[in-house]
Amino acid sequence: MEIIVRDNADQMSRSAATVVARVLNSKPNAVLGLATGSTPLGLYKELIRMHKDEGLDFSQVTTFNLDEYVGLTKKHPQSYHYFMHENLFKHINIPTQNIYIPSGTTDNYEAFCEWYEDQIERCGGIDLQILGIGSDGHIAFNEPTSSLGSRTRIKTLAKQTIDDNARFFDSAEEVPIYAITMGVGTILEARKLLLLANGRAKAAAVAAAVEGPVTSMITASALQLHHEAMAIVDREAASSLRMLEYYEWIQAKMPDAP
Ligand code: PGA
What we know:
Blueprint: E1 2-6, H1 9-26, E2 31-34, H2 41-54, E3 62-65, E4 67-69, H3 80-87, E5 99-100, H4 109-122, E6 128-131, E7 153-156, H5 159-165, E8 178-181, H6 184-188, E9 192-197, H7 203-211, E10 229-234, H8 244-253
Parallel strand pairs: 1-10, 2-3, 2-6, 3-5, 6-9, 9-10
Antiparallel strand pairs: 4-8, 7-8
Helix pairs in contact: 1-2
The protein binds 2-phosphoglycolic acid (PGA).
2-phosphoglycolic acid binds next to loops.
């Protein structure tokens, strides 16, 4: 995995936006996999800026979001539909029909999950998947012990995730218990993976994902199996990495690499 360490969250977001822009510049009709949560907010702000100031074009882009809470309508302020609309989609020129987000209110989850997987395939697969990481090491809502071959399905959230996400709700009791999420197997099929993490609270999860064994206990560790996975982390999130000096050495020596 390529590990890039930036001094702070702003720099992390700017580097991530550069990666996204590079993909869009080489393939204007790219399929992006998107994530929610606090981590990608700076990335989305930067993409909006690039759209407004530099003409970064989303008119042919298709997006697939990783997950959604079960039971929250699209208009619920904590739904990921609402999050994506407010924090990215309403500010860029992406056609509404090109936006895919799992439904938290379908009356047939099994059929919906199959349909979602089919749509990803029909669009040619995901070119670049953006990922955050939970403090329990999850990617999307693939909680510890999720199969590394899992597909889009319903998951029961871990207590840790409910507690982490309670900050967005009035109380922990209001956090939905179930979510619909792409599986680890679904995520691993994307052509490129980009994991972002900032802040000290993510340091242990980042170290386990990047340097620990590949294990369903830390589903982000599955990125080690992918041939084009990159992690861009800030200095705090990188603080428990044993090989930190080596990653920085690689970056410093990159321009001279044969
Ligand atoms: P966060 O969530 O970006 O809000 O920290 C990340 C995640 O749980 O995947």
